[in-house]
Design goal:
- It is a single chain.
- This protein is α/β, with parallel strands linked by helices.
- Helices cover 36% and strands 12% of the residues.
- It has helices at 2-15, 60-64, 66-69, 89-101, 122-127, 172-187, 206-213, 216-232, 246-249, 262-270, 290-307, 323-326, 337-352, 384-393; strands at residues 33-38, 106-114, 117-119, 138-143, 194-195, 198-203, 239-243, 274-276, 315-317, 360-364.
- Strand 2 (106-114) and strand 3 (117-119) form a beta hairpin.
- This is Glycoside hydrolase family 99-like domain-containing protein.
- It comes from Olivibacter ginsenosidimutans.
Length: 395
């Protein structure tokens, strides 16, 4: 297998043939699609955010009050751009310029739906889609269909009660409403990211989906219906992307039969056609040195390659430290821009070794400040992480 891949890469290099499998790049000169997850909680125009962050500027409240809540705590990050309103199209226009200038050409919006309606959607609708330069980037949705407990509310999360405020489960009727809405509102936009003409839609929490729809067989039928609706809208199919972590591939009660592996058969039965990760913390111990974590990442990528039949798009996390919300956390150590650059080169090498799939790489994240996994400039490394992306993918 290695010799075959190496031969293909050599041929591509000698002949100067560019990789083109129908993926729509936001910049014709950029060979790789570098996609950063965007957490849309840093907005001040969404009244549904007020119950969690009453000051009215979204989860910036958690970031800016850290030292007040935990005096003398080691976590004292400050955004170089200040606590910006990302639902402001002028602000988002600046972010799009900075992202594309440094090699980020796709945003993956965390997208939420609770209590029969969208949640945290204003950053996409009022910010990104109204930005004057939105055509410089692509975007797609990751349905963050997890439960909402007290984690976001710093006034309550210290009690560790984990009260379920909203469930991520939806019925078949509500699922159809969501899918039809996203096809019409987002998939048809020229800025929506597609692979071989297929809109990419990522699902975060498979157990929540299955429980809401009533079981595995019902979920298979619902997802097949979603694909057919996408085709009816004029697309060749739906690129249904799995968030790769153990809870999504090891569903109790599923019999893998005689397939390649039970987990491969499970996601294949559901109809997922590709996968990526959302965070390193989902599959490895992150309370260690970043370079040690990367060794586990390599092993995980090799395991996925050996286990699953669909394309895996390599994922790199900037870091992890959830203490702004809780005061304590596992902490990634030594995740400097220089080491982050090494991780990006590892992902680039993985893409180069898989020339038969789209050159997509995902990064956590553009702005996960309260999980300390962000590309945006700060008081510690400045533009260091963004410069690392630029060095690997543009220079």
């Amino acid at each position: 297998m290695f010799k075959r891949i190496h031969f293909v890469l050599v041929c591509y290099t000698i002949l100067g043939i560019s990789q083109s499998y129908g993926q729509q790049h936001s910049n014709g000169k950029q060979r790789y699609d570098v996609a950063a997850f965007l957490y849309p909680a840093y907005a001040n125009d969404d009244p549904r955010l007020r119950p969690f962050w009453p000051e009215g500027n979204g989860e910036w409240e958690t970031v800016t009050t850290m030292q007040e809540r935990y005096p003398g705590h080691y976590w004292n990050r400050k955004p170089a751009w200040g606590p910006i309103n990302e639902a402001d199209p002028a602000i988002m226009s600046m972010e799009i310029n900075e992202a594309t200038k440094h090699g980020i050409n796709v945003f993956i919006f965390d997208w939420y739906w609770y209590d029969g309606r969208p949640f945290m959607e204003t950053t996409l609708d009022n910010g990104f889609l109204k930005a004057e330069n939105k055509d410089k980037m692509k975007f797609y949705l990751m349905w963050a269909n997890h439960e909402v407990v007290n984690t976001w509310d710093t006034r309550l999360n210290k009690y560790h009660e984990d009260n379920v405020i909203w469930t991520g489960k939806v019925s078949r009727d509500e699922f159809e409403k969501i899918c039809k809405r996203n096809i019409e509102k987002y998939f048809k936009l020229p800025q929506y990211y597609k692979i071989d003409g297929k809109p990419v839609f990522m699902i975060y929490d498979v157990p929540q989906l299955i429980q809401g729809l009533g079981g595995i067989e019902q979920t298979v039928k619902a997802l097949q219906w979603f694909k057919e609706e996408t085709k009816k809208a004029g697309f060749p199919d739906l690129e249904l992307q799995l968030t790769m972590w153990s809870q999504n591939v090891n569903y109790s009660g599923f019999d893998g039969g005689k397939g390649k592996a039970p987990e491969n058969e499970f996601v294949k039965k559901l109809g997922f056609t590709s996968a990526t990760h959302y965070q390193f913390v989902h599959f490895t111990d992150v309370n260690k040195d970043y370079l040690d974590i990367l060794e586990n990442v390599k092993k995980e990528w090799a395991r996925i390659d050996a286990t699953y039949e669909f394309p895996y798009y390599p994922h790199i996390s900037v870091g992890w430290d959830n203490s702004p919300r809780t005061g304590q956390s596992a902490v990634v150590k030594n995740n400097t821009p220089a080491n982050f650059e090494k991780a990006l080169r590892m992902a680039k090498d993985y893409v180069d070794a898989h020339p038969d799939q789209a050159p997509l790489i995902t990064i956590n994240s553009w702005n996960e400040w309260t999980e300390t996994s962000y590309l945006q400039p700060d008081n510690l490394y400045g533009y260091g992480y963004l410069e690392a992306v630029k060095k690997v993918f543009l220079k």
